[in-house]
Each structure stands twice: as C-alpha cells, then as structure tokens.
Specification:
This protein is an alpha/beta fold. The chain is built from 4 helices and 9 strands, in the order βαββββββαβαβα. 26% of the residues lie in helices and 29% in strands.
C-alpha cells in the first residue's frame, strides 16, 4: 500500500496498450502495469466498458469480480473485471452493492490483497450480502500456471 500509487491489471494485449497509454500520459504519480501473460478469450456477454473496469452482464443476481488474466475465464455469473486495481474504482464498488452474492477471485495473496480491500469497501457501505474470496492462502508449490489457476478456481 503505497500512497498515490496506481496499479493497472489488463487482461489482454489491447487492454495492455490502453493501460500503458494511461500510465504514460494520463496518470499522475507512480504507476505499475501488470503484464497479462496467457491467452485472452472473448466473453459471450453484453459488456459495458469503462476506463477502470468492464461489466459483463449475464442477467444474474450473482457477481464474480476479478482482474488480469483471470478475467479471460468463463463464469456463469455477471462479471466485473477490474482494470485498475489500485486505487479501487468507487463505481465498481457501487455496482457490486446491487448483488446479493459476490465472489472475488484473484491470483494474489488473500490477506491484504485486492479482494480483501474490496470486501472492506462493501462493508463500509453497509452491504449485507454473501461474499466469498478465492485467493492464495498459503505457500504454493511449483506447478504449471494452468494447473495453479484450475486449483484456484475449484
């Protein structure tokens, strides 16, 4: 947690180009752009695109929130893909307030990670739904990335 530090986490090369442009020309202060390794897929859902997030609607009352390459996976819920993960976009939190169940999936550490920060923002706005955080909780032994992601998503 570095004050006034911005972190982008694009899911594919098109988003990477956009984030690099924003980092170089539009964002004040220090910036990091996470590189989206792996393949990207196209979602079969109606998407609303904003600078800091994308909302993929499937007319569900459940929401999956994720970022980076995990956004390229298919989910059976509405999906809120964060593109800017630090600071968290207030508009994204406002969207999540409209769902009764929220699952946050990230490739990062559970304690102190983005999903924990997002849960805190929901709670400070008196949200009372069901929240599940899927993240790394302990030491991860060496394995292929695909196997690690499958384990995380299970």
């Amino acid at each position: 947690m570095i004050p006034n530090f911005t972190v982008f986490s694009p899911a594919n090369t098109d988003e990477l180009r956009s984030c690099l442009k924003r980092a170089l020309y539009e964002t004040k202060g220090p910036v990091a752009v996470r590189y989206p390794r792996g393949q990207s897929t196209i979602h079969n859902a109606q998407s609303t695109i904003h600078n800091d997030y994308k909302l993929h609607k499937r007319n569900s009352d459940k929401l999956t929130i994720t970022y980076g390459r995990l956004a390229n996976h298919e989910y059976n819920t509405d999906v809120l893909q964060l593109i800017k993960i630090q600071p968290l976009p207030d508009e994204a939190v406002n969207i999540a307030l409209n769902y009764r169940e929220v699952t946050f999936i990230e490739e990062g550490i559970k304690n102190g990670g983005v999903g924990e920060q997002f849960a805190y923002k929901l709670l400070t706005r008196s949200w009372s739904g069901k929240y599940e955080l899927k993240a790394i909780n302990s030491f991860i032994p060496q394995a292929e990335v695909g196997a690690q992601i499958s384990k995380l998503l299970s």
